[in-house]
Write a structure and sequence with these properties.
binds iron/sulfur cluster; about 650 residues; 4-stranded antiparallel β-sheet; TIM Barrel; 18 helices; globular; disordered N terminus; 5-stranded parallel β-sheet; Pdz3 Domain; 4 domains; alpha/beta
Length: about 650
């Protein structure tokens, strides 16, 4: 494609719309553009507000460059849309426009010259950087009362781009995954269980042309600074298949030049032929979550619409040959029936074990109301039978196998929760070589007593990271205390301490930390509240109740703490994860909570994990948790915590 002439990009009413610096730059940035939407805000009416409007416009135009279609729009004055049609200068009458008339210090050349001009999803941007939505709302609001002008001619704008991307670089996007997951914009398959079917608008980011996406990815790499722990906008995981992106290998190579951190990649296996695996091996350390779903070509084709299933099914052998550790994941989707799924799960797990998978992860099948209006299967039956099969397989396989969310298995099968019980040990890991086995209960690590699962995991993680040569563990095995000891450096494939954790011991999820209760206690005391409602989830509640029985909170006299479990109404279906609750679910629960016998709370406490997206306290629909207090009239506090399901 012929590159347009740099310098003057377009003309509107005889006015140059963009004057470049006249300097060729190799590092052209992807253009982050957003369409203006109808914000529903009422216009400001009186021209007494002219100065305020001018200041607001100038502030916004310092940060955002208005666009008219594909072109940058200059502006040097504005005029109210009301009967008084006097024009007001924007910049002290010196005739200099900061919009479009050249780039300011720090502002980068953008891909606006390339002809690629698709806009990004504003609702999606609002999740990770609500100030972009704020700019859009402010600009749309201003443009509902004024018209911009340039050289006395009206300038009509319908979008904006971010001017200096350096303004937006921060600590929220500090991992390689925050860059490469943005390549997950497409997928070769069409799985019958794909969570992208009926996805909510705020999570959608429609694919653009590969060239445009590459420019965006290059921009993210350029702004990614692993040493400073900073990057440009975070990601919410891998919505589709990053490895299917035509530019994924150059992207990973550019990232590898910047960081030695491991790349943990999810893949459906569709591109994993010998050459691709060899290219990945050169990028080590790499860890792959291989979404195999079935080791049977017929079933994989049926589930995923994969026309060449043998490639993904052959990938484990190639990965093992290349020394790339991997986990095999299976969605236990009961299609065409439960028995067939269970039979295939059994075979697939054995196949993964034989091919040296580090782990097998069985995802209990989930669906939202956006996915299916009617229940596609009986959740209790399918989840229960899947857990029972996994437990049987655990006794026979060498590699650990677990279900996700593991709290479901724990609630179903363990009367006592949060135990430091080992459910599997990675083959050839230090823990395996010391003799740790599934069913062992960790009671001490290097002589430090262990009471709970989070403690065991923390101590093992610390031990692994500390670089200590020798270590010891005490476990309870069939009623007897057994001492295990060994070298922390004693391991081989498929374990390695860069991509593996806890010296190879695998537990039933992260568990619930007692420190959360201490935080809850302090928070309630500080608030002075008397009727406290703590909102949790179906999956976490049993563990929380056990912890509260074992360690009752010390609260001021007369203070009452109750637990509540809001329904996942927004996502609906069989979704029961607390981290997928949204602001409206919490509002509904508080408003519908029966009054009378139970007094209305004067404080609602909610774990922070449903609002952890990029630190803005927003849920998956982009709403701030502060709306809960605004709409219910009850004070709301977040209890800082990490997601505990995994
Ligand atoms: S491989 Fe993943 S992203 Fe692709 S269709 Fe299947 S579930 Fe969806």
């Amino acid at each position: 494609m012929r590159r347009p002439q740099r310098g003057v990009r377009g003309v509107q009413g005889g006015i140059p719309l963009l004057m470049g610096r006249g300097k060729e730059s190799k590092d052209e940035d992807h253009v982050f553009r957003y369409r203006l939407g109808d914000t529903g805000r009422k216009p400001v009416h009186s021209d007494r507000l002219a100065e305020m409007v001018r200041q607001q416009l100038c502030n916004i135009l310092d940060i955002a460059q208005p666009l008219q279609g594909d072109s940058e729009a200059a502006a040097d004055a504005f005029r109210f849309l009301g009967p008084q049609r006097r024009a007001y200068e924007l910049y002290n009458g010196n005739g200099t426009s900061k919009t479009g008339g050249g780039r300011s210090e720090g502002e980068e050349q953008s891909a606006v010259d390339s002809g690629d001009n698709a806009c990004l999803n504003l609702a999606n941007a609002a999740l990770y950087e609500p100030r972009i939505e704020f700019i859009a709302e402010q600009l749309a609001s201003l443009l509902s009362v004024v018209e911009l002008e340039s050289g006395g001619e009206p300038v009509r704008i319908d979008g904006f781009r971010l001017k200096d991307l350096g303004d937006w670089v921060g600590p929220h996007a500090a991992t390689p995954a925050d860059v490469f997951n943005h390549a997950a914009t497409r997928c070769q398959y069409d799985c019958i269980f794909c969570y992208n079917r009926g996805s909510v608008e705020s999570l959608e980011q429609p694919p653009h042309s590969p060239g445009e996406e590459w420019k965006e990815l290059e921009t993210r790499v350029r702004h990614y600074n692993p040493r400073a722990g900073r990057g440009l906008f975070p990601t919410f995981g891998s919505p589709r298949e990053a490895l299917a992106h035509p530019h994924i290998l150059p992207l990973l190579r550019s990232l590898r030049e910047k960081t030695g951190e491991p790349f943990r990649l999810c893949s459906n296996g569709g591109v994993l032929d010998r050459d691709f695996v060899a290219a990945l091996a050169e990028l080590a350390p790499v860890y792959l979550d291989l979404s195999l779903n079935s080791s049977s070509p017929q079933r994989r084709s049926m589930l995923m619409a994969d026309r060449c299933p043998e490639k993904a099914i052959g990938a484990p052998a190639l990965l093992a040959d290349a020394g790339i550790p991997f986990a095999v994941t299976v969605v236990a989707w009961p299609y065409p029936g439960l028995e067939e799924m269970l039979r295939d799960l059994d075979e697939t797990a054995r196949y993964a074990d034989a091919e040296q998978a580090r782990l097998v992860q069985v995802n209990l099948p989930g669906y939202s109301r956006f996915f299916a209006a009617r229940e596609p299967f009986d959740t209790g039956e399918v989840w229960g039978e899947t857990v029972r099969l996994v437990q049987r397989l655990r006794e026979e396989l060498t590699c650990p196998i677990f279900v996700s969310p593991s709290l479901y298995e724990e609630n179903l099968t363990r009367p006592r929760k949060n135990q430091p019980e080992v459910i599997g040990v990675v083959r050839d890991s230090p823990a395996a070589r010391w003799g740790l086995t599934a069913g062992d209960m960790v009671t001490a690590v290097n002589g430090i007593p262990v009471k709970s699962r989070p403690q065991a995991r923390d101590l093992l993680a610390l031990l692994q990271e500390s670089g200590t040569d020798r270590a010891a563990m005490t476990v309870l095995r069939e009623g007897r205390s057994v001492e295990l000891a060994g070298d922390t450096g004693d391991w081989s494939y498929p374990f390695d301490p860069i991509t593996g954790t806890h010296l190879g011991a695998v537990f039933m999820g992260a568990g619930l930390r007692t420190s959360y209760l201490e935080r809850l206690e302090a928070l309630v005391r500080d608030s002075g509240a008397r009727e406290v409602l703590f909102l949790t989830s179906t999956l976490v509640r049993p563990t929380l109740e056990q912890l509260l029985r074992e360690r009752p909170l010390s609260l001021p006299e007369g203070t009452r703490l109750r637990l509540g479990v809001p329904e996942n109404r927004f996502f609906g279906g069989n979704i029961m994860l607390g981290d997928l609750l949204v602001v409206q679910d919490f509002i509904d629960f508080v408003n519908e909570h029966p009054e009378g016998a139970e007094a209305r709370p004067d404080l609602v406490v909610i774990p922070s994990s449903p609002f952890h997206l990029s630190g803005w306290g927003r849920d998956l629909t982009g709403r701030t948790y502060l709306d809960i207090a605004r709409e219910t009239g009850v004070a709301v506090r977040l209890l800082e915590c990490h997601p505990i399901w995994e």
